[in-house]
Amino acid sequence: xxxxxxxxxxxxxxxxxxxxxxxxxKSYIKISPNIKVIGFDLGSPKKSFQYTLKLVSKDNxxxxxxxxxxxxxxxxxxxxxSLGLSGYHLKVKPYPYHVLRENxxxxxxxxxxxxxxxxxxxxxxxGNAAQIRTGDSIFHISVDKGNLELAKxxxxxxxxxxxxxxxxxxxxxx
Length: 174
Hints:
Blueprint: E1 41-43, E2 51-57, E3 61-64, H1 65-83, E4 89-92, E5 98-102, H2 111-114, E6 124-132, E7 137-143, H3 148-161, E8 166-172
Antiparallel strand pairs: 1-4, 2-7, 2-8, 3-6, 4-7, 5-6
Helix pairs in contact: 1-3
């Protein structure tokens, strides 16, 4: 199985997966890969909490679905082990709609015979990413006043898994 390419190739926000061609079959992506984020709401969503913490992005960029999932798992593990499922509500806000593509270039002996170069350069679907703008919230955590510091550490750990610099905003629910 091939390794995932470095995120530097996909960090920049690009135009969504559109392509205009005189042939109808080449004007859209035929398949989109499965999204790796499992569950966007965790904890108890119906309970009302005193505080809501948001992890807010400082940059415009794309975040892969596997980065979102790993950040969600680290923060959820901290919250679930100490508070239980009824002591918090964690919500992943962005949805990875954008399909990442790669134009595979052959290398090695005899590559010039079966490589198309840039002739069909639209690329094959590789993965999914969420497009994030400056000021968009990535995670929401709702907790009571006593668990505020624990939620901050959970969001700090989640921000370490994401490829952007983030800040934590705390709002009081009324």
